[in-house]
Amino acid sequence: MALPKRIIKETERLMAEPVSGISAVPHEDNLRYFDVEIHGPSSSPYEGGVFKLELFLPDDYPMAPPKIRFLTKIFHPNVDKLGRICLDVLKNNWSPALQIRTILLSIQALLGAPNPDDPLAADVAKSWKEDEQAAIATAKAWTQQYAVPK
Amino acid sequence: MDFPGSGEPPIKRRRFFADAANHETTHNSGDTPPSASLSPSTATARLPHDIDADTRPKTNLTGSSSLPHPAKSSLPQRHVKAAAGPVLAPPSEGNPRNPVPKPAAFDQGTFEAFVGESVKPEVLALLREGCGNDLERAINMYLDGTWKSLKRKAPAASPARPSFSATARLKQEDSIPPPAQPSALGSMPDSRYVGAFGVEGWTTRSGSNLLRHGDVVKIERQKIQIPKPTPQKGQAKLGVAQPTFRVSAAAAKRVDVIVRFTDGTGREIGRLAKDTANWVSTLMDQKICTFEGTCVYAPEKLRTNDTVFLQLRCSLLRSAFFPRGFHVADNRTTGRFEETESSEEKDLRLRQVALVRLFQEINLLPTRGNAASAKNQRQGLLDAAEMAESKEQDKPKSQGQDGAAASSPSDDNDDGQELEQDQLDALYKKAQSFDFSTPEAEPAESFALTLRPYQKQSLHWMIGKEKNLRNEERETSMHPLWEEYAWPTKDQDDKVLPTVAEHPAFYVNPYSGDLSLQFPRQGQHCLGGILADEMGLGKTIQMLSLIHTHKSDTAVEARQSNRPVSSVNQLPRLPSIQGRDTVTDAPCTTLVVAPMSLLAQWQSEAENASREGTLRSMLYYGNEKNADLLALCSEANAANAPDVIITSYGVVLSEFTQIASKSGDRAGNRGLFSLNFFRVILDEAHSIKNRQSKTARACYEIAAEHRWVLTGTPIVNKLEDLFSLVRFLRVEPWNNFSFWRTFITVPFESKDYMRALDVVQTVLEPLVMRRTKDMKTPDGEPLVALPPKQIEILDIELSKAERDVYDYIFTRAKRAFFANVEAGTVMKAFTSIFAQILRLRQSCCHPILVRNQEIVAEEEEAGAAADAAAGLADDMDLQSLIERFTATTDDASDSNAFGAHVLGQIRDEAVNECPICAEEPMVDHTVTGCWHSACKNCLLDYIEHQSDHHEVPRCFQCREVINSRDLFEVVRHDDDPDTANVGQGPRITLQRLGVGNSSAKIVALINQLRELRRENPTIKSVVFSQFTSFLSLLEPPLTRANMQFLRLDGSMSQKARAAVLDDFRESKRFTVLLISLKAGGVGLNLTSAKRVYMMDPWWSFAIEAQAIDRVHRMGQEDEVKVYRFIVKDSVEQRMLKVQDRKKFIATSLGMMSDEEKRIQRIEDIRELLS
């Protein structure tokens, strides 16, 4: 199936006008599959970390949202052990007016503002709620351990 | 060989049989041989003519013909001793005997001796009277019982093909006098050798040395005393040649075909094999030939029923060349055609078969004839005769149902098959071999236009036809039905035969069995013809130039006082063809009969083509019809009579009906039929292609000196189409249907296409002038350079709702069809199946059509009205589907309810890319109820996507719930010149989705038109649809788009149509003309348009092509683009395939009764539904 005009345009724009702290590069053999890197927002527990994600555009994109998942281990109440992300715009609140760029920005924002009230990783959310400082420390440690480029 | 009793002197002189006392002496002069004077009934013993004395005995050979043995001696006078040799006899042979028999005069003693019983005096008297004092005839009459019918009413029993008896004379009185006898006959010898052939015979006696090689035998026809009981089939067929049949039908069955051969003393030795005897007997009976036999082989000792071989020398008799007085059946006025074969026709057929067989046997080939190879031709002729035979046998059955009424519709059925395209092409080929070197004629000065060279040529041709000038070429062309045969110069033994100086050849018409010594010239009495130029070559203009250029004397004189007339007009007046007792001459007037839609066009073209004041034209239609034509056009009023009267077929028909109801009082009506016009022109003359139709018959009755028909398609799909034209033109003899049938229909039906088409070609050739658009002049220039034409098919995708309706109907139609196929009731359910196909096609245009009441009428036209209405009533499912569809369309547009601000914002957004598909700008910019923009399809897809996932559709931008009815398409009026320059930027309006886009096709059309208007704001286009109700649905969207449109359909009056055409032609702005395919398919000139939109396909593309040619015709100056709207994956797409295969013949719609066509159509429907 030929690549829809929209995907081509989005890809071109991601290359031409990259967003700071975010990169998305399509695979050469599958233009619907992107390697994504998101820099942890400053003044967040993830600062300094570079998180790898994979992003896949399904056939019915943009009617359906892209499928996206963390590859880098991260300690975050809205991301589970498998890297799946709990974010409304990736689910019910998806709209075809959203784009790869906007979704990645949303994820970056999610790193800066974890939401333990709508958890995906129940244990992480629990520790976050019980002892936020300890949780932040764990997150920082994980970032150092897994996300900081060596 | 009809012997006109009232014929001219030469024949009469030979009719000497009356003087019984004189038998011997009459033979003595060679120059007036009595060869032809035998009565037909006794012609059985035509003696071989004395040509080669070696082969015949020196003594009398003549033994009388039909006489049974005992009588022989009682007729000594018949033994001719030494007749002078005929002209042909080689002088060297010395002692020629010319035993040409002559009839014995009637004499009681002899008679009774013959019949072997005594006869009552009154019977004798009767016989004497009936036989014309011819003894042999009398004997035959007595023996076969025909005299009994004489008794009752001798005159009425006149034979169909009398020879020269008393009854013949009676017959002659009421039939057309025979054509003058060709003078060539005078120098024709009594008989002339044409060839020899071998035959088998079988002996009837036994003995030795009866017959040896080289023996000469006489070949005789003999009637046996007691006619054989009904003989075998073969004899029944061919044995009817005996004159006896002419009087009594019962007697006809008892005829024999026995041909005997006798030795020198008159003893019968044997008979010819039946196969040969069948036709040899005919030739002898009808006095065409004499035969003379030579034994080739015979067993030394003969036993009865031994086979012997003879060689027969055949000589054509002089009598064979006497005109038979073919009398043209006068079917002109009655319109009644002979259904059964008359005895005359039967006689003719026998003769024809016999001649063909003869030429086959002696292997004489025509030296000149028509193209088909002679052999095939002969075979075909025999087949045709056989077919006539079997037809005749079938007749009684069918006749029972048909009755005799010629107008019975079932007559149409046996009107022949349709022509295949390639056959049509072949047909036209000859007529189209237009010679560019033919002379030209300049039109009269009063003609205002300039003619193209080819038009001047046809003007020359037409003037020639009207004045009946033959050009040289035609002078020498042989009558198509005749063949030329050279007289052999050597006989079978290679001896040189004497030649007759003036007669190197003779002519045979194998179709009628006529023989002639004179060159049969192609006759041409019709003072008119068929102008069959393809559409767009200016047929109208050519006719108008003829009207200007060739006028009657009266007209010229009448006008001369007013102004000088060019010398071309000083033409001799031709006598009227028509009887004058009831019609008055209208020497100045040409009557033009045209379809209603063309009347105005004719009038305006007539005006344009004439210098001011040189031509008075008058429309004879509607209110104008009250005029007293009789007074207006009569010779007395010549100075003020209209030059051209234009009327419609409808008027002709209605006046004809009136007159018919007044039992044919032509003058009383004072209308069209009270006049004998100078000229009549039928435009679009294929309107009368059905000879049974009332219109056609009415047209036949129009009286005029010059008769013309104009048509681009002289043959629509059957050869009979042409017949009707020929009949109107009164071309002898083709306007006689039985003649036509014999020579064209029958061969064609018996699959002898080559011959039938050949004949048609020769009928056409002198009558037709036909040029086609793709003809090239010798310089390689096209006749008429038309700008190019492009046809593009636009695929239309149905919307979901439309597709649902379509699928529903499709499934139903398919189910019904195959259920019927299974049940074997397809033919019965034909109308309902057809109705469903029609609904399917309509649903491709607009689902609402399926429900529309108006279409009922259209369905009726298609012969499919039956259950459409009823079938729909119980269609609850469909009903709801359509309601769902119409729900989105019924709403009135409330597009102007928005503030300028919102509109401005929306307008600006339009140039942005679509947030969903990233198209830039958006395709079919559409906004939601919350004013967010996207492409229409993206928006609809998204809503559908959400619904499919059981989500409430929400706006992609603000996540407001979207009501699918609250979608508005943004219409930018940048294509509309009226609003484009007002204010800043183009005006936009919002249209609720569905409204104005009521169907996919309509949307596509409007989009096409918008685009067109953007490119070219003043262009004009034509939109064709076969559904007038669909045209109605096109109107509101056009109005909304602010496009000016006009409409032309069948329901409009002539005046209204003319007004519409004028408006369209004169319009200087973007204009769309909506035309129904049926009303606008023919004739109209719409060259001011440059674009054609075909909204729906018709069964045959030819009909569409004709519609397209309304625009792409002479006078068109620009390239024409044609767009055909075809719904993807639908019955329409499959119709295109059917069109390609040319299988579906659209015009057969009017002939639903024809089973065969239905079967073919069923096949097509099967394909449509597969």
UniProtKB/TrEMBL annotation, chain A:
<dbReference type="GO" id="GO:0061631">
    <property type="term" value="F:ubiquitin conjugating enzyme activity"/>
</dbReference>
<keyword id="KW-0067">ATP-binding</keyword>
<feature type="active site" description="Glycyl thioester intermediate">
    <location>
        <position position="86"/>
    </location>
</feature>
<protein>
    <recommendedName>
        <fullName>E2 ubiquitin-conjugating enzyme</fullName>
        <ecNumber>2.3.2.23</ecNumber>
    </recommendedName>
</protein>
<dbReference type="Pfam" id="PF00179">
    <property type="entry name" value="UQ_con"/>
</dbReference>
<dbReference type="GO" id="GO:0005524">
    <property type="term" value="F:ATP binding"/>
</dbReference>
<keyword id="KW-0808">Transferase</keyword>
<keyword id="KW-0547">Nucleotide-binding</keyword>
<dbReference type="InterPro" id="IPR023313">
    <property type="entry name" value="UBQ-conjugating_AS"/>
</dbReference>
<feature type="domain" description="UBC core">
    <location>
        <begin position="2"/>
        <end position="148"/>
    </location>
</feature>
<dbReference type="InterPro" id="IPR016135">
    <property type="entry name" value="UBQ-conjugating_enzyme/RWD"/>
</dbReference>
<comment type="similarity">
    <text>Belongs to the ubiquitin-conjugating enzyme family.</text>
</comment>
<keyword id="KW-0833">Ubl conjugation pathway</keyword>
<dbReference type="InterPro" id="IPR000608">
    <property type="entry name" value="UBC"/>
</dbReference>
From TrEMBL, chain B:
<keyword id="KW-0479">Metal-binding</keyword>
<feature type="domain" description="RING-type">
    <location>
        <begin position="914"/>
        <end position="959"/>
    </location>
</feature>
<dbReference type="InterPro" id="IPR001841">
    <property type="entry name" value="Znf_RING"/>
</dbReference>
<keyword id="KW-0067">ATP-binding</keyword>
<feature type="compositionally biased region" description="Low complexity">
    <location>
        <begin position="155"/>
        <end position="169"/>
    </location>
</feature>
<dbReference type="Pfam" id="PF24975">
    <property type="entry name" value="UBA_Rad5"/>
</dbReference>
<keyword id="KW-0234">DNA repair</keyword>
<feature type="compositionally biased region" description="Low complexity">
    <location>
        <begin position="398"/>
        <end position="410"/>
    </location>
</feature>
<dbReference type="InterPro" id="IPR014905">
    <property type="entry name" value="HIRAN"/>
</dbReference>
<dbReference type="InterPro" id="IPR027417">
    <property type="entry name" value="P-loop_NTPase"/>
</dbReference>
<dbReference type="GO" id="GO:0005524">
    <property type="term" value="F:ATP binding"/>
</dbReference>
<dbReference type="GO" id="GO:0003676">
    <property type="term" value="F:nucleic acid binding"/>
</dbReference>
<dbReference type="InterPro" id="IPR013083">
    <property type="entry name" value="Znf_RING/FYVE/PHD"/>
</dbReference>
<keyword id="KW-0862">Zinc</keyword>
<dbReference type="InterPro" id="IPR000330">
    <property type="entry name" value="SNF2_N"/>
</dbReference>
<dbReference type="Pfam" id="PF00271">
    <property type="entry name" value="Helicase_C"/>
</dbReference>
<feature type="compositionally biased region" description="Basic and acidic residues">
    <location>
        <begin position="388"/>
        <end position="397"/>
    </location>
</feature>
<dbReference type="Pfam" id="PF00176">
    <property type="entry name" value="SNF2-rel_dom"/>
</dbReference>
<keyword id="KW-0227">DNA damage</keyword>
<dbReference type="GO" id="GO:0006281">
    <property type="term" value="P:DNA repair"/>
</dbReference>
<comment type="similarity">
    <text>Belongs to the SNF2/RAD54 helicase family.</text>
</comment>
<dbReference type="InterPro" id="IPR014001">
    <property type="entry name" value="Helicase_ATP-bd"/>
</dbReference>
